[in-house]
Write a structure and sequence with these properties.
By secondary structure, this protein is an all-beta fold. Helices cover 2% and strands 37% of the residues. The protein folds into two domains: 5-303; 411-491, Immunoglobulin-like (Sandwich), CATH 2.60.40. The protein has three helices and 40 strands. It is rod-shaped.
């Protein structure tokens, strides 16, 4: 039996609403399943059917509508899916230039739209809102196995897709040949999803990008109050989420029940945001992770560039000061191509610490106090060292520097003055810990006021030593040095001469002072 699709706009208004369980059921159409061209108002209206429209095995597009004066498709209160389309050769649904919404679906017991195996799941261009779906009992949109894009919306006057209060996911797209969702030139939001009971959007195994949004005048992707993840993108062949030329925020996610954005195993970038006027990504109060990126390919999981404002490229804040604001798992490495600066404040494990680094053993090898004190647990290697203070004689206009005293040994220096007794001798007592800390003692003695044949009469033993050889009452200046022998020094003895690493051979630590001159041996 031939089915004359062009008669539908004339026949449908005169059919009783409960004539079939499915309001429209078309199987194996030789061309388009349904084709509606330039109706006076709405292309198709379906009210209170079990399935709004079911189209199977069309050789071309499942459902094509042109030049609608109002909605392209208006489906209200179906028992199961609003629209169900399976295995069409080209588009699942194609809508061109509707004056109001491309698709308006509300109060559906099943999925708002269920499309399986089309070349493109949805292709919508030149309308006010690309899709408006409210209150579906299951997913707002389900698209399975399209050969190209799961959903494509171009040049909508308002939102590309507006989905509200679905019982399950707002959008569920699986195994696309190209992008999962593609929206271009939306008048305001690229994709807007509010209050789904599960994830706002799930895109799985897209052949190209998971979600592409280009040139929306407001938010590119806006997800509010999801009971699950705001957006969950798994295994795209390219970027998980690609946003270009957003008028305001590239991505806004508010009060997600779980992760704000979850991206698993992209072959290219997890998220790409280019030239937003306002925030590239803005995530507020997620129930789980704000952004969760797992297994980025050879490119970066999160790449941020061209920050033109004075605000930070990434701003992270936490209401609980006892929790981490940034957690990097595994061996963390941070690289800065230019200036690298850290400013931290607040409570720390060390009461007066302003900034600290904790190692894998839980120790703190690097601590800076609020007053500027620096504590380092290991070796400090430097080109030179000094103190810098206000000059004592001209503190307002000058600095004073003194260099450190350095040695190839791990040496300690002790000195003082002593007055010889009536026998021309004196005993000098050192601290209790002196011999535990030091070994290999060396001595210097200098008489003050008169010459003398001073000598060390008894070397250090039981933390004291004795000098002699001068006259009674002679003042003597003394100096003792020792080499550290504490456990840390013995375990980390300084290597004085070390070969450079292979990658650094032929280079200088301070190339400006060498000018390729080889020093004389």
């Amino acid at each position: 039996m031939k089915f004359y699709c062009w008669l539908l706009p004339l026949i449908i208004p005169f059919l009783p609403l409960n004539i079939f369980a499915q309001h429209l059921h078309i199987d194996h159409a030789p061309g388009q399943g349904i084709f509606v061209d330039a109706p006076g108002k709405v292309g198709i209206i379906v009210d209170s059917a079990l399935v709004g429209a079911q189209i199977l095995h069309s050789k071309s597009t499942g459902l094509e509508l042109k030049l609608n004066q109002d909605h392209g498709i208006w489906v209200d209160s179906t028992g199961l899916n609003g629209i169900q389309i399976e295995r069409t050769k080209e588009h699942g649904i194609k809508i061109l230039r509707a004056h109001s919404n491309g698709i308006d679906i509300s109060q559906i017991s099943g999925n708002g739209i269920n499309i399986d195996g089309a070349q493109r799941g949805l292709d919508i261009a030149g309308i006010n809102e690309g899709m408006r779906i409210t209150g579906a009992q299951n997913n707002g949109i389900t698209v399975n196995n399209p050969f190209q894009h799961g959903i494509e919306i171009i040049a909508s006057g308002h939102s590309g897709a507006f989905i509200r209060n679905t019982e399950s996911q707002g959008v569920d797209v699986l195994n696309t040949g190209a992008s999962g969702v593609r929206v271009r030139e939306a008048g305001t939001y690229g994709v807007r999803i509010e209050g789904p009971n599960a994830a706002g959007m799930i895109v799985t195994e897209a052949g190209a990008q998971g979600v592409v949004v280009d040139a929306s005048t407001s938010h590119s992707f806006h997800s509010l109050h999801s009971k699950g993840k705001g957006a969950f993108i798994v295994g795209p062949d390219l970027e998980g989420l690609h946003i270009l030329n957003s008028g305001l925020q590239g991505v806004t996610i508010d009060s997600a029940g779980a992760d704000g954005i979850g991206i698993l195993a992209p072959a290219d970038d997890g998220i790409t945001v280019t030239d937003p006027v306002d925030d590239g990504i803005n995530i507020i109060n997620p129930g789980g992770d704000g952004i969760h990126i797992n297994g980025a390919g050879s490119s970066a999981g999160l790449f941020i560039t061209t920050a033109t404002s004075t605000e930070p490229s990434v701003y992270i804040t936490h209401s609980n000061d006892d929790e981490f604001d940034l957690h990097i798992g595994g061996d963390a490495k941070i690289k800065a191509d230019g200036k690298y600066e850290i400013q931290l404040d607040g409570d720390n494990a060390i009461a007066d610490a302003f900034f600290q680094i904790r190692n894998s053993d839980g120790a703190l090898p690097f601590i800076v106090s609020e007053s500027g004190d620096l504590a380092i647990a290991g070796h400090l290697s430097k080109g030179s060292g000094s103190f810098k203070i206000d000059h004592p004689l001209d503190p307002k206009n000058k600095y004073l520097y003194h260099s450190f005293v350095e040695s190839p040994d791990m040496m300690n220096i002790y000195n003082g003055n002593v007055v010889l007794d009536q026998n021309g001798e004196a005993t000098i007592t050192m601290p209790d810990w002196f011999e535990s800390l030091n070994r290999d003692f060396r001595y210097q003695l200098t008489p003050i006021g008169d010459p003398a044949d001073l000598y060390v009469a008894q070397e250090i033993s039981q933390r004291s030593f004795r000098v002699a050889g001068g006259s009674a009452g002679l003042k003597v200046s003394w100096q003792v040095t020792g080499i550290r022998q504490d456990r840390y020094a013995n375990a980390h003895r300084l290597q004085v001469e070390v070969d450079k690493e292979d990658k650094n051979k032929g280079t200088y630590l301070h190339p400006g002072v060498w000018n390729d001159e080889i020093p004389n041996n």
